[in-house]
Amino acid sequence: MSGVSAAIRVLLADDEALVRAGVRAILASSGAMDVVAEAGDGREAVELARAHRPDVALLDIRMPRLDGLTAAEEIVRTVPGTAVAMLTTFSEGAYVTRALGGGATGFLLKSGDPYELIAGVRAVAAGAAFLSPKVARYVIDEGLGGGRLTREAQARARVAVLSPREREVLGLVGAGLSNPEIAARLHLVEGTVKAYVSAVLDRLGVRNRVQAAIVAYEAGLVES
Length: 224
Prior knowledge:
Helix 5 (114-125) links the parallel strand 5 and strand 6. The chain is α/β, with parallel strands linked by helices. The chain has helices at residues 17-29, 42-52, 68-78, 96-102, 114-125, 133-143, 148-159, 164-174, 179-186, 190-204, 209-218; strands spanning 8-13, 33-39, 56-60, 83-88, 106-109, 130-131. The protein has a 6-stranded parallel β-sheet with strand order 2-1-3-4-5-6, sandwiched between helices. The chain has 2 domains: 8-141, Rossmann fold (3-Layer(aba) Sandwich); 147-219, Orthogonal Bundle (Arc Repressor Mutant, subunit A), CATH 1.10.10.10. The N and C termini lie far apart (39 Å). GO terms for molecular function: DNA binding. Residues 9-125 form the Response regulatory domain.
């Protein structure tokens, strides 16, 4: 094997051609990502995901024929090897909570920093969760209901049951690091990190890394 990593294969779906062109250019600038297919609506996105089986499907939320949330659910269900990340705007923040349960593991802003987009795609491709910091704050402040102080107190109570090492792992999950990156940061083997992540999800009673990341943000374990 050569020492060169394969490019991350991306499916890009947005009904605006200009947006697709901009996102494609940003991903191409990374030198490690290849847009293998583009879709102008959600139904086409699902079909292309099944045909190309990309590493990441990057989906707009509002699209014709089939909205991005429904498309995400179908891709997660029928193309299990493809990670899904949503492109969103603040006006669409209320939809993010639905996508949490649908299997999406990334939430990125169209208006965000290009580095954020590249980092987000890279993170979800590696099996990690990634929330744009602005999206995460918006979801926590506006999208989950209840008072912010109450949610913070509840989150801190939930993470109090974790060991110091588990809280450390949770904070890194919230920061969007993959298992290999967490292992390198904490000087652990990857198998040990996987065990920690599994234990954290179980003890917090959450279904996936994105939900765990929300708890990490609410509990103050992730720097803004």
